[in-house]
Structures are given as C-alpha cells and as structure tokens.
Amino acid sequence: MENIKIISSFTKKLSLAVLERNGSISQKFGEFLDKLFENISYTKFQEDLYENKVDIIIVDLATQDKDSNFNFIKKLKDKNPYVKILVYSLFSDIFVLQNCIRYDVSGFLTDESTKTDLKSFIKNCIEKISITVNNKLLNHDFPNLNIQDCIDYLANDRDSNVTVVSHYKGLPIIKDALIIYFDEKSVTLKVQELQLRSLNKNDNIALCSEFLGKDILTTVKDIDEEKLHIELTYNDFIDTFVHHRKNLRLDAEDTNQLVLIDQNRRKIKTKALNISTNHILCDIVNYNEFKIHSKLNISLKLNDRMKVLQGTAIVKDIFNTNNGYKMLMRFTFIQAENQALDNYLSLRVKKLINELKK
Fold first, then answer.
1. How far apart, in whole angstroms, are the C-alpha atoms of residue 120 and residue 169?
2. Does the global pTM surpass 0.85?
3. Who has greater pLDDT, 358 or 46?
4. What pLDDT, in 10s, does the model give residues 262-271?
5. In what order do the strands lie in the sheet with 257-261?
6. Which alpha helices (H) appear in 7-135, and where do they start and end?
7. How far apart (Å, rounded) are the C-alpha atoms in residues 342 and 95?
8. For residue 319, which of 296, 287, 294 has the smallest C-alpha distance?
C-alpha cells in the first residue's frame, strides 16, 4: 500500500494484543505501541487470546516452550485465519525461523530489534490486512497524502518533535528536533547547538517520525547557527530500509582509492563516500553501469598510510541523487583485513567526536 504515509491513521482502526512474560515486550516497546494503537491489551496467558478476535498479536516465545508457542500460533490461525502474528524471541535458531515461515509470521523481533524494525513489521501487517476479504479498513477512506500533509500532521496533530537521519549513513544525527515553520516546499527545525555542527548545506537527510509509514527525503537548504535553525527542502518520500543502518557509517577520507572489478574483469576507479564494517557507498558514472545483486571484487585504500584491503562485494542498491549516481555495496574481507578496518573506524570515530566537542 503506497498510501501508508501516516501509519497511526491505520493502527488506530486496528486492535493489538501482546502475549509476554515479565514485561519483555511492554518494557521495550510499550510506550511506542501505546502511541500507535488505541485498542491494545497485554496478557501472560494464551487462553485469553483464543476468543479475542484481535487484528495483530505479538507473541513472546519465552511465555512457553517453543513447541507450545508455535502450536498456539497454529490454533490461532485455525480460529482466525486473518490474524497477523509477530514473534519476539531471544533466540534465532533454525527451528524458530523455519516455524515462523511455516506459520506465515509477519515479523520476527529479537532483543536487538528497534522501534524502526517494529514499525516496519506493523506496516507489513497493515498491508496484509488491507488485501484480505471484508477487512475493517475497507470502511475508512484514507486520502493520498503529500509531504506537506504529513508535516502538518506532525506539527499540529502530534508532538512536533522529529528525528533527522543522515540519508546514506542511517545515523540519527538529530533527535527531538522541533518543527517551527513549514510550507509547501520546506520545513524549518530548531535543534541543539552540538547537533548543528554535524550538518552541511546540500546534505541529503531523511526526516523521520514514529507516526510516519514512510520517511521524507530532504536537502539542507540553510543553516542559521545563531538561531539554531535548519531549513530543509522536500525531495520525496523514501522507505526507511534504504537509509536505516544498525552499523555506524563514517565519511571516507578524500584521499581514499576504490577499485571495482566486475565479472568481465572490467576495472573501474572511484572513491568511497562512506564506509562501515560491512558496507561501502561510492560514486558511479551512470545508473546502468552495474546491476543490483551483481558480485564484484574490490580493492580499497582508505588513506595514504594504509595498505590496500581486498575482498568481494555484492551490489545492494543504486541511487540517483542531485549529486550524481551512488552505489551501495555489502563487502566481505578476510579476518586480518577486517581488524585493520575496525582499527581505522575506531580512530575515525574518536577524531570526529573530538571535532564536535570543539
């Protein structure tokens, strides 16, 4: 459903139940879920849910042994084939994953999952519910919203604090920014002084909120250091998975050299824009130069002082931006070269932190 721009507009029409033990889910996600759902219940007992015709259920596998919990999910599906199940587990062994697939679980949460992960799974549930026969969402008219509609909702109908995320790095560089003005082309935010130092004009960043089903891709138009204001111009909606990253990404040094070797032994010299422990974003000349999922060999020299790191990579995504085409790759190095990369990233983090403190 392309229309899921404000996710809470849909969740307010649906019911949610949480089966947990010792507050495992409510302590981690309770505040977030309470903001999205008006009809929500928590229970420790499977029996409470057999006759409760809820739309979405989150099941903590620690409430019973794994066999009992998946038998419970099977019985729930038999009684209510349209119920959507999310599973929460501290373990991700093959038995759990196979049964999640077997019983059509709509999302798998672990102790490392974030609110962004949960929101993505809830959106997946909404999309599945919307295509079922006689679903309760059919009785509601959900207008096709534009970016200004979403900003207006955040500024007036909800707490106007938003998060600004570096588009290519996936890092929340500004949390709890306050919307102070917006129109059909741009929005102005008030931020903290330290956060302001991490931004530059023409940066591509995403505007995020717990209530949005999609994020808003923007460009930094102006920075007012005296008022602590940033003005962002709207570009388009963007799916969260494009820029959401759990691993830290850092801007690469200007002196870096990156060589890409495709299956035809074609060598292409470029530069890494930013890098993490397993991803590289780089410049490419045109969109059709590489294909998504294609395999490459890479040689990376991070600066003049380091040796060349060599490994393999898979093309994950290709972007068309106002600064040309970019390509995101997931790479693999041998253990010794991974250690060299880790040491480099650690030193870069320390350097950047010291710069921000000045």
1. 19
2. no
3. 46
4. 878 889 999 8
5. 250-251, 272-275, 279-284, 324-333, 309-321, 295-301, 257-261, 267-270
6. 7-11, 26-36, 47-50, 66-79, 94-102, 115-130
7. 33
8. 287
Note the pLDDT tens digit of each residue in 139-185.
666 777 889 989 988 888 666 678 888 776 666 778 888 999 999 99
Helices and strands in the chain, H and E counts: 10, 19
pLDDT of the residue at 242: 60
Assign 134 to helix, strand or coil.
coil
Distance CA 313, CA 278 (A): 9
Q: Kindly write down the DSSP assignment for every residue of 279-318, as one continuous string.
A: EEEEEES-GGGS-TT-EEEEEEE-STTSPPEEEEEEEEEE
Domains and CATH numbers, the chain: 7-139 (3.40.50.2300), 147-243 (2.40.10), 250-357 (2.40.10.220)
- What does the alpha-carbon distance between residue 68 and residue 76 come to, in Å, rounded to a whole number? 12
CB 350 within 8 A of CB 317: no
Kind of pairing between the strands at 267-270 and 272-275: unpaired
CA distances from 248 to 9, 72, 166, 278, 351 (A): 32, 39, 11, 10, 14
Q: For the chain, how big is the Rg over CA atoms in Å?
A: 23
